[in-house]
């Protein structure tokens, strides 16, 4: 305790400098024990679960469980159901395993705790162990479930989790379809449940009869005999087995019976009748933690009995009653079949553990991020600093925090982190003899690198500004242990050197690292060789079993995608990209390539100050040409005034404005083409500027190298922006501005060829959309002031 908090607690985070004055002093004394095969106390344990799950590529192989080659190969073949376990379940399973190791250690060793009544050591019991969580509402039910599966008696004083248990969800779904079978989700839940035992393949066949109808309607077709509609729909199912028909008939017969009985029976009697008629009450009793599951069903029965005493009657109203109960009261705790005074593992919040001490404490959920959601409110209020709102710029339609809000937000964050630091201190000081800490990280290697970097930012302790960056308890503990003599494994993973602190050399730590596949337990394994540890049970796969699937695995790995060319077709492409692809093909003779390689640019703060790029200059000129008022462009002063106005209105920056030359713009409007535009404007003609377009075109038109028989119906969305076009009596005139540098050696024919494809696509699009021919196509080169007719 002293070591960790000397490293991370300070006036900034914790509102207290943890010095020798504040440090805990050794007070409790225990008799020495010298029994062979007996373990007492021991080092503080830190168990870190790496969620990245990349087996076999660990930077510190020696820290992980030792597996032989066959077990390592088998770890990649775990069931999908196990791979998808969420983080809480994974951590709960690991905790369950550690508890079983404490009570039933291997090698003949026995973990003992001191009993003050006996004044001697005795083997640890379940009641000596307490699991502490920052908050129990979401985590405690999962821990209760997982520990119960492992046969560990557990008690959690939780007020949530009842309606999420599988037995209550199943019975509520059954009641819902008895009331109204035209509800696909509850119906699927019941069909997949042990009550009826439909397989996923069965349900797929039923669904495929008619996708547009309710699932219940599809089931009904199985009992409609030889009707033409039933036969026509059933003929669509490729595989139709008699066993499936029997399942459907059994379900529909049972459902019809229950629907009739629900009308005439009190709801509590009807629910108990369902328990017995389906044998579901007995089934859940045979499941892991069965007595508690049955108690949960009895609570639902009692709720129904209470409901019967009200003025409301009927199944529909009872379902609404339960839904209102869930929405108004949230959730409620599962049935308590064990009391906290029995020989059980207790789960409680850190807050409730204040003032209590326990022989063995397991602090779990240390990888869970701190809850700082309040910092994101639109308005923050602090009792000392006042309130901090956002600033709203209505003209620019922007919202950003005020300086005061930023200051309040920082103050709130420091106060929240200080509170978390104090809560962590409470958790650390609850253990009398053994402290076990567990938590998960998204990527162990990156986390270790971050912790080692933070550890190097201070002298004897971690720098305050690094502690503030911590997102959870695991970050704080990791930063501190990176400087500890027992934190070598963290430093090895990070491949980083950290100066070891000389503080508190008495503290000892044992860091254990886990991958997800180390924690998964295969429940189907019934017998395991004694040489294999319990933690390896989930990875046992017989060699002949692997060989049976090796051919199929090889076939799948060697599979080639039939439409590989389609992966080279973008969903949408700009005309400029199309022009680039075609130009590259002309240069090197390679196949037509539409997928552009991404070039990663340096971030702006690493770039040298070079002003605007040529592309940015061109964008600024195009924007000015779009916004110019044709009535005020007869002198450079008028054009400059319009540019300055765009700066004042924040349409462009001063740097962009400086890149636009008003003399070149005036030169364009004095050209024959510019005069033609001004004349049309005076006559009230239609002139369109910076017009975006989107049009679908066949992939084979975009990329002629694609086989037409396969991709002719594949469409690609072509997008672009036409600089200017205007309508005259006999057609459309298309104009595109070019701001590129043009040297004296560049020929007009080269320019035409460079932009030929781009202008052709613009022309084709205009003709398709406007329904008028494009009679003339021009490029205007601002660099030289030339007009190029295409």
Question: What is this structure's SSE topology?
Answer:
Blueprint: H1 2-8, E1 38-40, E2 44-50, H2 69-74, H3 80-83, H4 87-103, E3 110-115, E4 120-123, E5 129-133, H5 139-149, E6 154-156, H6 166-179, H7 184-192, H8 200-209, H9 215-220, H10 228-234, H11 242-264, H12 267-278, H13 280-285, H14 290-308, H15 315-329, E7 345-349, E8 358-363, E9 380-382, E10 386-388, E11 390-393, E12 398-401, H16 403-428, E13 431-441, H17 444-455, H18 464-468, H19 473-481, H20 488-494, E14 509-515, H21 516-519, H22 543-557, E15 572-574, H23 575-588, H24 614-627, H25 636-648, H26 654-658, H27 662-670, H28 672-682, E16 687-698, H29 699-702, H30 708-711, E17 715-728, E18 731-738, H31 748-770, E19 774-781, E20 786-789
Parallel strand pairs: 1-3, 2-13, 2-14, 5-7, 5-8, 6-7, 8-13, 15-17, 18-19
Antiparallel strand pairs: 3-4, 9-10, 11-12, 16-17, 17-18, 19-20
Would you kindly provide a brief summary of this structure?
By secondary structure, the chain is of the alpha/beta class. 43% of the residues lie in helices and 15% in strands.
How would you describe this structure to a colleague?
This protein is an alpha/beta fold and about 800 residues long. The protein folds into 3 domains: about 1-155 and about 340-365 and about 430-515, Rossmann fold (3-Layer(aba) Sandwich), CATH 3.40.50.300; about 165-330, PCRA, domain 4, CATH 1.10.486; about 570-790, Alpha-Beta Complex (Lambda Exonuclease, Chain A), CATH 3.90.320.10. It has a 7-stranded parallel sheet with strand order 6-7-5-8-13-2-14. Strand 9 (about 380) and strand 10 form a beta hairpin. Helix 4 packs across helix 5, helix 6 (about 165-180) packs across helix 7 (about 185-190) and helix 25 (about 635-650) crosses helix 27 (about 660-670). The longest helix is centred in the middle third of the chain and has 26 residues, at about 405-430.
């Amino acid at each position: 305790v002293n070591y960790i908090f000397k490293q991370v607690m300070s006036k900034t985070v914790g509102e207290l400098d943890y010095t020798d004055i504040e440090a805990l002093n050794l007070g409790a004394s225990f008799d020495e024990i010298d029994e062979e095969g007996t373990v007492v106390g021991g080092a503080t344990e830190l168990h870190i679960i790496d969620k990245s799950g990349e087996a076999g590529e660990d930077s510190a192989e020696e820290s992980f469980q030792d597996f032989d080659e066959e077990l390592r190969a088998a770890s990649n073949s775990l069931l999908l159901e196990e791979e998808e376990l969420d983080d809480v379940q994974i951590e709960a399973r690991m905790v369950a395993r550690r508890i079983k190791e404490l009570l039933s250690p291997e090698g003949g060793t026995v973990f003992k705790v001191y009993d003050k009544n006996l004044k001697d050591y005795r083997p640890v019991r379940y009641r000596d162990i307490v699991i502490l969580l920052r908050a129990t509402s979401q985590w405690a039910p999962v821990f209760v479930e997982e520990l119960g599966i492992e046969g560990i008696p557990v008690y959690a004083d939780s007020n949530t989790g009842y309606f999420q248990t599988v037995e209550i969800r199943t019975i509520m779904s059954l009641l819902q379809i008895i009331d109204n079978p035209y509800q696909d989700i509850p119906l699927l839940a019941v069909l997949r449940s042990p009550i009826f035992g439909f397989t996923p393949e069965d349900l797929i066949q039923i669904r495929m009869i008619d996708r547009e109808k309710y699932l219940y309607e599809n089931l009904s077709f199985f009992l409609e005999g030889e009707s033409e509609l039933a036969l026509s729909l059933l003929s669509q199912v490729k595989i139709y087995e008699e066993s499936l028909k029997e399942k459907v008939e059994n379900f529909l017969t049972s459902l019809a019976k229950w629907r009739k009985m629900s009308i005439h029976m009190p709801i509590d009697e009807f629910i108990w009748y369902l328990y017995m008629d389906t044998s579901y009450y007995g089934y859940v009793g045979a499941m892991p933690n069965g007595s508690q599951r049955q108690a949960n069903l009895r609570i639902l029965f009692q709720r129904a009995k209470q409901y019967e005493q009200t003025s409301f009657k009927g199944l529909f109203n009872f379902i609404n009653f339960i839904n209102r109960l869930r929405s108004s009261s949230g959730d409620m705790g599962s049935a308590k079949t064990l009391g906290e005074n029995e020989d059980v593992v207790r789960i409680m919040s850190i807050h409730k553990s204040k003032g209590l001490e326990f022989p063995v404490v397991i602090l779990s959920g240390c990888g869970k991020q701190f809850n700082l959601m309040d910092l994101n409110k639109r308005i923050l209020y602090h009792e000392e600093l006042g309130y901090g709102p956002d600033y709203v710029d209505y003209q620019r339609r922007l919202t950003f925090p005020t300086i005061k809000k930023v200051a309040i937000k920082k103050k709130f964050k420091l106060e929240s982190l200080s509170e978390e630091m104090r809560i962590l201190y409470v958790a650390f000081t609850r253990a009398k003899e053994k402290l076990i800490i567990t938590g998960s990280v998204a990527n162990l290697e990156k986390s270790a690198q971050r912790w080692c970097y933070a550890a190097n930012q201070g002298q004897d302790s971690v720098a305050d500004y690094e502690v503030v960056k911590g997102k959870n308890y695991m970050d704080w503990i990791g930063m501190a242990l990176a400087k500890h003599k027992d934190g070598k494994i963290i430093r090895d993973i990070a491949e980083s050197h950290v100066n070891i602190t000389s503080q508190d050399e008495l503290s000892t730590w044992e860091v254990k690292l886990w991958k997800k596949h180390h924690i998964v337990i295969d429940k189907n394994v019934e017998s395991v060789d004694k040489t294999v540890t319990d933690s390896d049970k989930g990875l046992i796969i017989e060699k002949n079993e692997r060989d049976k699937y090796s051919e199929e695995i090889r076939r799948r790995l060697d599979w080639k995608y039939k439409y590989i060319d389609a992966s080279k077709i973008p969903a949408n492409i700009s005309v400029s990209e199309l022009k680039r692809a075609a130009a590259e093909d002309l240069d090197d003779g390679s196949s037509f390539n539409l997928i552009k390689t991404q070039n990663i640019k340096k971030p702006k703060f690493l770039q040298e100050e070079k002003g605007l790029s040529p592309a940015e200059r061109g964008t600024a000129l195009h924007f000015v040409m779009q916004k110019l008022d044709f009535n005020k462009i007869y002198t450079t002063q008028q054009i400059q005034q319009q540019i300055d106005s765009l700066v004042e209105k924040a349409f462009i920056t001063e740097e962009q404005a400086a890149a636009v030359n008003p003399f070149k713009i005036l030169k364009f409007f004095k050209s024959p083409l510019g005069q033609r535009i001004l004349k049309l404007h005076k006559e009230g003609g239609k002139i369109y500027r910076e017009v975006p377009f989107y049009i679908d075109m066949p992939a084979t038109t975009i990329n002629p190298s694609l086989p037409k028989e396969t991709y002719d119906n594949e469409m690609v969305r072509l997008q672009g922006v036409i600089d200017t076009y205007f309508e005259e009596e006999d057609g459309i005139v298309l104009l595109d501005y070019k701001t590129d540098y043009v040297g004296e050696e560049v020929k007009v024919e080269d320019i035409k060829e460079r932009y030929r494809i781009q202008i052709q696509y613009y022309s084709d699009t205009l003709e398709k959309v406007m329904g008028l021919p494009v009679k003339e196509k021009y490029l205007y080169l601002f660099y030289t002031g030339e007009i190029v007719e295409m």
